[in-house]
Structures are given as structure tokens and as C-alpha cells.
Amino acid sequence: MALVHYNGHITKDQNMCSIYVSEISSYVRLNNYMTLAFLKRTILNLFTVSDGKSYTVDLCYRYPVTMNEFKICYRSMRIEDDNDVRSVIAYAKKYEADVQFEIMAFIREYNNDAPTNMIWELMEKELNDSLNIE
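RESULT FIELD:
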């Protein structure tokens, strides 16, 4: 299971760890055979209503980079293709006893003219280029 945050913000703390902040979140069940298209469709179904509009979603997930008894530090990475989906699921399974698998979903109305990396440029600006988003 992954906790999916919808249209929130990624902020950083004093240790440059990523923190997800969103008012709306939900759980989604993942499996090793999920494609990126299926994952996106599943998440869109969680958070959008059928109003006749087309939506698109950009995904990133956070992964632990350091863990000790007092703190877990995270970084964030984009989920861009099927290999990324399999990689993040495998990585999350490695840590599932210690940390919760979390995905941030940025959902917007589909627009052929809008560049797909628009949300990431905004996010980088918010973090002053200090958070490691690959």
C-alpha cells in the first residue's frame, strides 16, 4: 500500500530532507506488475471526478536516504516510466517495515500546450534548487 498525497507541496527541513504536505491523501494498492500508465490511471480515479475534462498526473515519491533511531531523512525522485515504478516498489519493499511508502501526485487539467515538466520547474523554484529531485 502507498499513501498518495494529492496536489500538496514538498518542503525541506533543516537537514535538507523532503517533507510532503497536502490536505488530501488516500491509499492505493500497488503490485510489481503495475505500469506507469496504470498507476497514473489508478491515482487519477482516486482524486478526480468525471466532469468530462481530461486530466494528467505527474508523480514523485520519497525514499529514505539515512535512518537512525531518531530520524529518517528522505529525498524525492520523479516517477517517469515503467522501470521507475518497478524500482520504487522494490525500494519501498526493502524499507516497508520501517517507513511508509508515499507518493506525491500533481494532477492538472490536460493541456497539449503545457510542458510536462512544468510542475517540476515550479517545485524546484519552491525549494530554491536545494532538494535533490532527479
